[in-house]
Structure formats: C-alpha cells, structure tokens
Amino acid sequence: MKKYQKGFTLGELLITIAIMGILGVTALVSTKNIQEASRIKTVYIAMSSVIAAGNGCMEDKKPLSATSNVPVAGQPLCDGAHDVWPDISDSEWEWYYLENNAFNNTFKAYARDTATDKVGCITCTVFACAKDLTATCPTP
C-alpha cells in the first residue's frame, strides 16, 4: 500500500515566500517611481503655464512679480495680468526665487522639491523658454 504525501515541503514553501517577497519589493519600487513621475509632471505643467503667461508679460515689457524675489501662489504673474503663479505645493514643490532682468527682458523662476531639495528652473528670453528639473539648474 502506497502512502501519498499531503502538503508542501519546507523547500517549496521557502521558494514561494521568496518569490512573493521579490514581487512585493518590485511593486513597491514601481509605485514610488510612478508617484515621483506624477509629482514632476505636475510641476512641469505648472511651469508650462508660467511660460505661457510669462511670455505675455515680457511682450508687454512688464517684469514678473514676486514678494521679496519669491513667487507666491495665487499672486498675479505681472502687473495687470489675469494669470497667477500656480500652486505647486500639492506636489511637494515650492517656488522659491525669481530673477528678472529688465535690461535683457528675461526671467528665471526657480522651484524646489521640499522632500529632496532638488531644484528646477524656468529660463525665458524674448526668443524661447526652457524648463529644467535636473541638477543642471544653477542655484541662486
């Protein structure tokens, strides 16, 4: 009479647990990367709106407005503008510095990730604007 084995061996259980652990860690890392990408995309969209409105201010020869060189969410971008500095605090970023150069009709706005201190900037001239959320943005 043959005796049938019921259940799993210890080796089978350990391999299954190890595979589940690897899958769990992979899912966790992927979720974190997706969240970071979403936060950066939110800031890029906000920067795009500043660029569009900022170009209008530059065409009217009005410098962008800020309180003590710090842009404030909800404050008009320049005198008489309907567009305002967008609120990026939900994405854990903050506006923290604005440079206006009335002579060259250019501006540079800086944003900082409050979680990592990563710096991003918008640089605009009368010819073109650029967004940069990499380490190449010089810190003011």
Protein traits:
alpha+beta, 4 strands, 140 residues
Q: What would you note in describing this structure?
A:
Strands 1-2-3-4 form a four-stranded antiparallel beta sheet, covered by helices on one side. With 140 residues, the chain is an alpha+beta fold. It has one helix and four strands, in the order H-E-E-E-E. The chain has one domain (10-132).
Write the layout of secondary structure elements.
Blueprint: H1 10-59, E1 93-101, E2 106-113, E3 119-124, E4 129-132
Using only C-alpha atoms, the radius of gyration works out to: 25 Å
**How much helix is in the residues?**
25-40%
Detail the poorly predicted runs.
none
Category by helix and strand content: alpha+beta
Main sheet specs: 4 strands, antiparallel
Summarize the structure.
By secondary structure, the protein is an alpha+beta fold. It has 1 helix and 4 strands.
